[in-house]
Specification:
Keywords: Acyltransferase, Cell membrane, Membrane, Signal, Transferase, Transmembrane, Transmembrane helix. With 138 residues, the chain is mainly alpha-helical. It is 76% helix and 0% strand. The chain is built from 6 helices and no strands. Helix 3 crosses helix 6 and helix 5 packs antiparallel against helix 6. The mean pLDDT is 85.
Length: 138
């Protein structure tokens, strides 16, 4: 099931997500993931120089995407509950829903964008390993 949900779809590409503004969002909220990981007691790992950690990064992107998918309906339900209880005006409900979309949809797109880039990095790492193996066996 997780591959069905989390695997990049045919229409998804780095270019699509860049056009949708994920890099702009990432620029303005560059440490959001690190802050959340620190608050959750998780260590931030250096992935740049270690190809063996790429599968762990894949897991982390799936984990954070799942959290945002779960938060989307929960926060929307809370906003509608507050509206129905008379604690939010229609204008505040609309603003709350826009904020909820901003705090859930963009991070979801960012995790999907990162996973597409990760797959490219994994392919490059695999090719490097194959070249090293070929040079040591010949």
């Amino acid at each position: 099931m997780s591959e069905l949900v989390f695997a990049p779809k045919r229409f998804e590409s780095e270019r699509l997500y860049e056009r949708l503004g994920v890099r702009l969002f990432q620029y303005y909220v560059p440490t959001g993931g690190r802050l959340v990981m620190r608050l959750a007691g998780l260590k931030w790992m250096g992935f740049r120089d270690n190809d063996l950690l790429l599968p762990q990064l894949d897991f982390i992107t799936r984990y954070f995407e799942a959290i945002h998918w779960l938060a989307l309906p929960a926060l929307a339900a809370l906003a509608f509950h507050l509206y129905s209880a008379g604690r939010l005006s229609p204008t505040l409900l609309a603003l709350a829903l826009l904020a909820i979309l901003g705090f859930t949809v963009h991070p979801i797109m960012l995790q999907r964008y990162n996973r597409i880039r990760l797959r490219r990095a994994q392919g490059a790492a695999w090719a490097r390993r194959q070249r090293r193996q070929a040079s040591t066996t010949s």
